[in-house]
Protein backbone atom coordinates (compact mmCIF):
# COMPACT_ATOMS: atom_id res chain seq x y z
CA UNK A 1 0.00 0.00 0.00
CA UNK A 2 1.25 3.49 -0.84
CA UNK A 3 2.09 5.88 1.93
CA UNK A 4 0.06 9.06 1.86
CA UNK A 5 2.60 11.85 2.08
CA UNK A 6 1.27 15.40 2.24
CA UNK A 7 0.78 16.66 -1.32
CA UNK A 8 0.08 20.08 -2.69
CA UNK A 9 -3.29 20.23 -4.43
CA UNK A 10 -1.53 20.67 -7.79
CA UNK A 11 0.39 17.47 -7.27
CA UNK A 12 -2.52 15.38 -6.04
CA UNK A 13 -4.04 14.55 -9.41
CA UNK A 14 -0.63 14.11 -11.07
CA UNK A 15 0.17 11.64 -8.30
CA UNK A 16 -3.06 9.74 -8.96
CA UNK A 17 -2.26 9.47 -12.66
CA UNK A 18 1.25 8.27 -11.88
CA UNK A 19 -0.16 5.64 -9.54
CA UNK A 20 -2.51 4.54 -12.30
CA UNK A 21 0.48 3.99 -14.63
CA UNK A 22 2.26 1.98 -11.92
CA UNK A 23 -0.88 -0.09 -11.30
CA UNK A 24 -1.46 -0.84 -14.99
CA UNK A 25 2.20 -1.86 -15.38
CA UNK A 26 2.01 -4.11 -12.31
CA UNK A 27 -1.16 -5.86 -13.51
CA UNK A 28 0.28 -6.28 -16.99
CA UNK A 29 3.33 -8.00 -15.52
CA UNK A 30 1.43 -10.16 -13.02
CA UNK A 31 -1.52 -11.13 -15.23
CA UNK A 32 -0.69 -10.54 -18.91
CA UNK A 33 -4.22 -11.57 -20.04
CA UNK A 34 -6.01 -9.32 -17.57
CA UNK A 35 -6.75 -6.29 -19.75
CA UNK A 36 -7.54 -8.20 -22.95
CA UNK A 37 -10.03 -10.35 -20.99
CA UNK A 38 -11.44 -7.30 -19.22
CA UNK A 39 -12.00 -5.46 -22.50
CA UNK A 40 -14.13 -8.32 -23.84
CA UNK A 41 -16.99 -7.75 -21.38
CA UNK A 42 -18.20 -8.11 -17.82
CA UNK A 43 -20.19 -10.79 -16.00
CA UNK A 44 -20.27 -9.75 -12.33
CA UNK A 45 -22.41 -11.94 -10.06
CA UNK A 46 -22.97 -9.28 -7.42
CA UNK A 47 -24.56 -5.83 -7.39
CA UNK A 48 -23.09 -3.81 -4.53
CA UNK A 49 -25.06 -0.85 -3.23
CA UNK A 50 -23.05 1.20 -0.77
CA UNK A 51 -22.49 4.66 0.66
CA UNK A 52 -20.43 7.26 -1.25
CA UNK A 53 -18.27 7.62 1.88
CA UNK A 54 -14.59 7.55 0.86
CA UNK A 55 -13.79 5.15 3.70
CA UNK A 56 -15.93 2.30 2.37
CA UNK A 57 -14.50 1.39 -1.06
CA UNK A 58 -16.55 -1.57 -2.31
CA UNK A 59 -13.89 -3.72 -3.99
CA UNK A 60 -11.24 -3.07 -1.37
CA UNK A 61 -13.16 -4.09 1.74
CA UNK A 62 -14.22 -7.45 0.27
CA UNK A 63 -11.01 -8.01 -1.72
CA UNK A 64 -12.75 -8.20 -5.07
CA UNK A 65 -11.05 -7.64 -8.41
CA UNK A 66 -12.19 -5.43 -11.28
CA UNK A 67 -15.07 -7.26 -12.96
CA UNK A 68 -16.37 -8.86 -9.75
CA UNK A 69 -18.84 -6.21 -8.58
CA UNK A 70 -21.37 -3.99 -10.32
CA UNK A 71 -21.47 -0.96 -8.07
CA UNK A 72 -23.96 1.76 -7.16
CA UNK A 73 -23.07 4.21 -4.43
CA UNK A 74 -24.90 7.24 -3.10
CA UNK A 75 -25.10 9.14 0.16
CA UNK A 76 -26.31 6.68 2.82
CA UNK A 77 -26.84 3.76 0.38
CA UNK A 78 -30.47 4.54 -0.28
CA UNK A 79 -32.72 2.71 -2.74
CA UNK A 80 -35.58 4.99 -3.66
CA UNK A 81 -38.38 4.01 -6.03
CA UNK A 82 -38.33 7.33 -7.86
CA UNK A 83 -34.53 7.46 -8.32
CA UNK A 84 -33.95 6.77 -12.02
CA UNK A 85 -30.24 6.30 -11.47
CA UNK A 86 -30.78 3.53 -8.91
CA UNK A 87 -33.62 1.94 -10.94
CA UNK A 88 -31.47 1.90 -14.08
CA UNK A 89 -28.61 0.22 -12.22
CA UNK A 90 -31.03 -2.30 -10.71
CA UNK A 91 -32.75 -3.09 -14.00
CA UNK A 92 -29.53 -3.44 -15.97
CA UNK A 93 -27.81 -5.60 -13.37
CA UNK A 94 -30.82 -7.90 -12.85
CA UNK A 95 -32.20 -8.12 -16.41
CA UNK A 96 -29.04 -7.90 -18.48
CA UNK A 97 -26.09 -8.90 -16.29
CA UNK A 98 -28.22 -11.36 -14.33
CA UNK A 99 -26.44 -10.83 -11.04
CA UNK A 100 -27.32 -13.48 -8.46
CA UNK A 101 -26.85 -11.34 -5.36
CA UNK A 102 -27.63 -7.76 -4.44
CA UNK A 103 -25.79 -6.53 -1.37
CA UNK A 104 -26.81 -3.34 0.38
CA UNK A 105 -23.83 -2.46 2.57
CA UNK A 106 -24.30 0.46 4.93
CA UNK A 107 -21.74 1.52 7.49
CA UNK A 108 -21.77 2.50 11.13
CA UNK A 109 -20.87 6.15 11.71
CA UNK A 110 -22.54 7.14 8.42
CA UNK A 111 -22.58 10.94 8.15
CA UNK A 112 -25.74 10.89 6.05
CA UNK A 113 -27.66 8.84 8.60
CA UNK A 114 -26.35 10.96 11.47
CA UNK A 115 -27.39 14.16 9.67
CA UNK A 116 -30.86 12.73 8.99
CA UNK A 117 -31.41 12.16 12.70
CA UNK A 118 -30.55 15.78 13.50
CA UNK A 119 -32.58 18.95 13.02
CA UNK A 120 -29.93 21.04 11.28
CA UNK A 121 -30.25 22.66 7.86
CA UNK A 122 -27.87 21.24 5.24
CA UNK A 123 -29.41 22.48 1.98
CA UNK A 124 -30.52 20.34 -0.95
CA UNK A 125 -29.30 17.15 0.66
CA UNK A 126 -32.02 17.48 3.31
CA UNK A 127 -34.56 16.36 0.68
CA UNK A 128 -32.50 13.22 0.06
CA UNK A 129 -32.05 12.60 3.78
CA UNK A 130 -35.82 12.93 4.30
CA UNK A 131 -36.02 9.30 3.18
CA UNK A 132 -34.03 8.33 6.29
CA UNK A 133 -36.23 10.57 8.44
CA UNK A 134 -39.16 8.47 7.16
CA UNK A 135 -37.34 5.35 8.37
CA UNK A 136 -36.78 7.08 11.73
CA UNK A 137 -40.45 8.01 12.04
CA UNK A 138 -41.57 4.46 11.23
CA UNK A 139 -39.28 3.07 13.96
CA UNK A 140 -39.35 5.98 16.41
CA UNK A 141 -40.33 3.97 19.49
CA UNK A 142 -37.58 1.39 19.03
CA UNK A 143 -34.99 4.06 18.28
CA UNK A 144 -35.88 6.32 21.19
CA UNK A 145 -35.78 3.35 23.57
CA UNK A 146 -32.01 3.28 22.95
CA UNK A 147 -30.43 5.83 25.26
CA UNK A 148 -26.85 5.86 23.98
CA UNK A 149 -26.78 8.25 20.99
CA UNK A 150 -24.12 6.27 19.12
CA UNK A 151 -25.99 2.99 19.58
CA UNK A 152 -29.18 4.74 18.45
CA UNK A 153 -27.50 5.99 15.27
CA UNK A 154 -26.06 2.50 14.67
CA UNK A 155 -29.59 1.10 14.88
CA UNK A 156 -30.83 3.74 12.43
CA UNK A 157 -27.97 2.78 10.07
CA UNK A 158 -29.16 -0.86 10.20
CA UNK A 159 -32.82 0.10 9.76
CA UNK A 160 -31.87 2.24 6.77
CA UNK A 161 -30.08 -0.75 5.19
CA UNK A 162 -33.16 -2.90 5.85
CA UNK A 163 -35.35 -0.26 4.25
CA UNK A 164 -33.18 -0.31 1.12
CA UNK A 165 -33.31 -4.12 1.01
CA UNK A 166 -37.11 -4.04 1.23
CA UNK A 167 -37.39 -1.31 -1.40
CA UNK A 168 -35.30 -3.42 -3.79
CA UNK A 169 -37.55 -6.43 -3.16
CA UNK A 170 -40.69 -4.35 -3.65
CA UNK A 171 -39.58 -3.29 -7.14
CA UNK A 172 -41.23 -4.88 -10.17
CA UNK A 173 -37.71 -5.54 -11.52
CA UNK A 174 -36.77 -7.97 -8.74
CA UNK A 175 -40.23 -9.51 -8.46
CA UNK A 176 -40.27 -10.12 -12.20
CA UNK A 177 -36.90 -11.89 -11.93
CA UNK A 178 -38.25 -14.14 -9.15
CA UNK A 179 -41.41 -14.84 -11.16
CA UNK A 180 -39.15 -16.05 -13.96
CA UNK A 181 -37.23 -18.31 -11.54
CA UNK A 182 -34.06 -16.26 -11.87
CA UNK A 183 -31.81 -16.98 -8.86
CA UNK A 184 -31.52 -13.67 -7.02
CA UNK A 185 -31.12 -12.86 -3.35
CA UNK A 186 -30.94 -9.50 -1.61
CA UNK A 187 -28.73 -9.10 1.47
CA UNK A 188 -28.33 -6.48 4.20
CA UNK A 189 -24.79 -5.84 5.49
CA UNK A 190 -23.13 -3.21 7.64
CA UNK A 191 -19.44 -2.23 7.61
CA UNK A 192 -17.64 -0.99 10.70
CA UNK A 193 -15.15 1.84 10.25
CA UNK A 194 -13.69 0.88 13.65
CA UNK A 195 -12.39 -2.57 12.70
CA UNK A 196 -12.99 -2.97 8.96
CA UNK A 197 -15.37 -5.88 9.50
CA UNK A 198 -18.74 -6.39 7.83
CA UNK A 199 -21.66 -7.54 9.93
CA UNK A 200 -24.46 -9.51 8.26
CA UNK A 201 -27.81 -8.21 9.47
CA UNK A 202 -29.56 -11.58 9.14
CA UNK A 203 -31.62 -10.12 6.32
CA UNK A 204 -31.61 -12.25 3.16
CA UNK A 205 -34.60 -12.18 0.82
CA UNK A 206 -34.62 -14.58 -2.10
CA UNK A 207 -38.22 -15.08 -3.16
CA UNK A 208 -41.61 -13.40 -3.36
CA UNK A 209 -43.01 -15.35 -0.40
CA UNK A 210 -40.76 -13.26 1.86
CA UNK A 211 -42.29 -10.02 0.58
CA UNK A 212 -45.16 -8.42 2.49
CA UNK A 213 -48.47 -9.01 0.73
CA UNK A 214 -49.33 -5.44 -0.23
CA UNK A 215 -46.13 -5.13 -2.27
CA UNK A 216 -46.49 -8.39 -4.18
CA UNK A 217 -47.04 -8.01 -7.89
CA UNK A 218 -48.33 -10.68 -10.24
CA UNK A 219 -45.70 -10.15 -12.89
CA UNK A 220 -46.56 -12.75 -15.50
CA UNK A 221 -44.41 -11.55 -18.34
CA UNK A 222 -42.15 -8.65 -19.15
CA UNK A 223 -44.56 -6.99 -21.56
CA UNK A 224 -46.62 -4.42 -19.71
CA UNK A 225 -50.24 -4.30 -20.83
CA UNK A 226 -51.03 -0.99 -22.49
CA UNK A 227 -54.76 -1.61 -22.78
CA UNK A 228 -55.76 0.56 -19.85
CA UNK A 229 -53.73 3.50 -21.05
CA UNK A 230 -54.99 3.10 -24.61
CA UNK A 231 -58.56 3.32 -23.34
CA UNK A 232 -57.88 6.42 -21.31
CA UNK A 233 -56.26 8.38 -24.14
ZN1 LIG B 1 -22.23 6.92 4.79
Automatic annotation (TrEMBL):
Cofactor requirement = Zn(2+)
Q: Which CDD domains match?
A: beta_CA_cladeA (cd00883)
> What is the uppermost EC class here?
lyase
Please verify whether the record's keywords include Metal-binding.
Answer: yes
Pfam families xrefs: Pro_CA
The protein's superkingdom reads: Eukaryota
- EC number of this enzyme: 4.2.1.1
What keywords does the record list, in alphabetical order?
A: Lyase, Metal-binding, Zinc
Question: Which reaction is this enzyme known to catalyze?
Answer: hydrogencarbonate + H(+) = CO2 + H2O
UniProt xrefs under InterPro entries? Carbonic_anhydrase, Carbonic_anhydrase_CS, Carbonic_anhydrase_sf
Q: Which family does it belong to?
A: Belongs to the beta-class carbonic anhydrase family.
What does this protein do, in the record's words? Answer: Reversible hydration of carbon dioxide.
What is this protein's name? Answer: Carbonic anhydrase
